[in-house]
Amino acid sequence: MEREDARKLSPQAQFERRRQVVSAYKRGVNRRRIARNLGLSYTAARMIVDRFKQDGMRGIESGRRGRRTGSCRTLAPEQEEQIQRTICDKRPDRLKLDFALRTRAAVMLSIERECGIRIPARSAGAELSEE
User: Residue 91: which H helix or E strand, with range?
Assistant: First the structure.
């Protein structure tokens, strides 16, 4: 059977695939054969079985994917609020910036001046969009 990238499956389909692995494991099928029959890598089959052994059926449920909201933030929430207030309340020329508009460069410079932190342009764009 040809391997399929399980990351492209819906969470329900992923759970069903994991349930099939557990079902075969309970019947005594070894993990290599499970992987081959279901089109998974041996590592994936082994990890599913290990998660099932450790946490039962709850261990094979699909969880939320990606980074947690707010992780890897450069600015503290208070600093973000302060910068956002400054952006909303004052024009760049009143902040003695060389910019006429609120651009990423202007936001980057404001953050550097007020907080002493250099941030990438992409993060400055995020500050602008949260206005």
Answer: none
Provide the 10 A C-beta neighbour count for residue 45: 24
**Do 13 and 50 reside in the same domain of the chain?**
yes
Return the number of other C-beta atoms located less than 10 Å from residue 76's C-beta.
Answer: 11
Position 60: which residue type? I
- Give the range of the structural domain holding residue 125, as residue numbers without chain letter: 77-129
Model confidence, pTM? 0.52
Tokens matching residue 100: 């006429």
Any domain includes 113: yes
Place of tokens 């508009």: 101
- In 3D space, the residue among 73, 84, 72 whose CA is nearest the CA of residue 114 turns out to be 84
Sequential pLDDT tens for the chain (131 residues)? 567 777 788 889 999 999 999 999 999 999 999 999 998 899 999 999 999 999 999 988 887 777 777 667 777 888 888 877 877 777 766 766 666 667 777 778 878 888 888 888 777 777 666 54
